[in-house]
Write a structure and sequence with these properties.
Blueprint lengths: L3 H16 L3 E5 L5 H11 L6 H8 L4 E8 L9 E8 L2 E9 L8 H15 L4 E7 L3 H9 L3 E11 L5 E10 L2
Parallel strand pairs: 4-5
Antiparallel strand pairs: 1-2, 2-3, 3-4, 5-7, 6-7
Helix pairs in contact: 2-3
The protein binds coenzyme A.
Length: 174
Amino acid sequence: MYWVLPFVWSVSFWDSLVNGGPPVATELGPDDLDFAAALHSDAFARPWSGDEFASLLSQPGTFGFVARRVGAAASAPLGVVVVRSAADEAEILTITVSRQARGQGIGRLLMDSVLQRLHADRVATLFLEVDEENAPALALYRRLRFAEVGRRPAYYADAEGRHTSALVLKRTLR
Ligand SMILES: CC(C)(COP(=O)(O)OP(=O)(O)OC[C@H]1O[C@@H](n2cnc3c(N)ncnc32)[C@H](O)[C@@H]1OP(=O)(O)O)[C@@H](O)C(=O)NCCC(=O)NCCS
């Protein structure tokens, strides 16, 4: 039985050496914007440049978080979220996690960081828009108790010209 412990320890040691330690989210800053743009361009058809991220973050009430693994050499951002908040409402402007890091709780970590911050700022409601066919994003938002409050038919179009609706989701914070 006791032989298992050193084995488990060595597996997690090597895992953290290769992949880095546990993921943490910190405020998105000027040094992260080129990485943020690279992550965004890998996920969306209409990519945002580093300058566009900078211009968004310079607007009042706009902030973001970046996730990375602590330790080891793996310090490149794994995910990014940007939020705009005005009065007691806020909106997710974008969230993306690098392809290799999906399904590891990074999206959840970023959204939890946003919810914590908005709660501290006494924001009442958080909105976002999501493609009705974006199953991973819908799974994340449903898990966080977002509710559908609207639908914009044929809002998105893919490269073949096929249209899908945008769902407007809302999460009440207080
Ligand atoms: C949507 C996205 C941010 C999710 O990030 P992620 O780090 O992979 O998500 P997490 O690992 O934190 O998973 C959060 C929850 O969603 C679920 N989930 C994630 N991917 C899923 C998938 N492909 N299928 C089903 N459920 C999924 C997880 O099981 C988890 O639920 P749990 O807490 O019950 O276990 C990521 O897929 C992404 O960057 N997609 C491309 C950009 C995008 O579509 N952004 C959203 C625009 S609205």
